[in-house]
Structures are given as C-alpha cells and as structure tokens.
Amino acid sequence: MGGSNSKRKRQPSAPRLDATGFLMHEPDDLPCPSVAWVDQPTGTGVVTSYDNDPGGSPVTVTFYNALKYGEYTISVGDDIALTPEKKGEGTELCTVKAFYAVDDPDEPMRMTVRWFWRPEHLELEESGEKTGKHELFFTSSEDAHNSIDAIER
Questions:
Q1: Contact (CB, 8 A) for 134 and 20
Q2: Residue 20's pLDDT is what?
Q3: Among residues 65, 81, 83, which one has the least CA distance to residue 73?
Q4: Handedness of CA 112, 44, 76, 99 (dihedral sign)
Q5: Half-sphere exposure of residue 91, counting CA atoms within 13 Å on the CB side?
Q6: Are 111 and 80 in contact (CB under 8 A)?
Q7: Which residues sit opposite 115 in a β-bridge?
Q8: Residue 44: in which H helix or E strand, if any?
Q9: What is the mean pLDDT of residues 28-56?
Q10: DSSP three-state, residue 119
Q11: Among 93-97, 99-103, 134-138, 141-145, where is mean pLDDT lowest?
C-alpha cells in the first residue's frame, strides 16, 4: 500500500501484529503518541453527526492537510492502519481523505477515511469469485468522524 510519501510509511510494531497485519494479542490501551497538526489550517466546514448524534447536529470543523503522529507525519492521501478491536482481527486499512479539529475536549482530532476491504469483508462466495488470501479491495465506502486515537501504534 503506497502513501503519498513512502518515507512516511509507518510499519506496525512486530509484537502487536503478524506479517499480514492481524492482531496477535488483545488490543491494549496503548497511550496515543504525541500528536500535533502540521502547518496552518486549510479551511473550515460543517459536518453532521460527528459524535453519532442521530439528529445529525451540524458542527463547524477546521481542516488540516497533515498531522505529526509521534515521529511520523501522516498526510491526507496516505494509507494507514487502524487498530482492530479484538485479537485475531486484521487491522482496518484505509486512505486518509481529511483531517479536522472539532470542539470536543475528549477527542478533538478526527479524520475521514476511505476503506480498503479484505476478502472476508465481501460476500463473494455466492458469486463463485475467488480472491487471494491477502488481497485488498479499494472501495468507495467512506467514514467520517474517526478518532485519531484509532491509528495503529
């Protein structure tokens, strides 16, 4: 998976993930590394339901092109891994579509992502299509409002 700058690729730590990106241990609450926006904001906009509010309350956000995540810089357009919820699950793989700040003291840094799907995410058996064990599918499926804390550390 290529990002916009191959020098920025961050490889998951060996003890947490196997060679194919599957979590080998129960996820623990590792502290999030130091995180900071890179450069100046690129603009503002309105998103709805960033906190899963069923009413879809509009929220004003400030957009950024990149953030410093520990020793790494992650930019819009980079491919990243998000920590799975349970042992034996694969990391969730995605491309960053947007970074933004919200007025939320608990999780002020958010991102919108576009997903890659693994064969197990698809219902291909009914169609008879075969896939490679480690094949990924780039989708049009996007999710907004993901916390920066979800990035695999």
A1: yes
A2: 66
A3: 65
A4: negative
A5: 21
A6: no
A7: 94
A8: strand 43-48
A9: 76
A10: helix
A11: 134-138
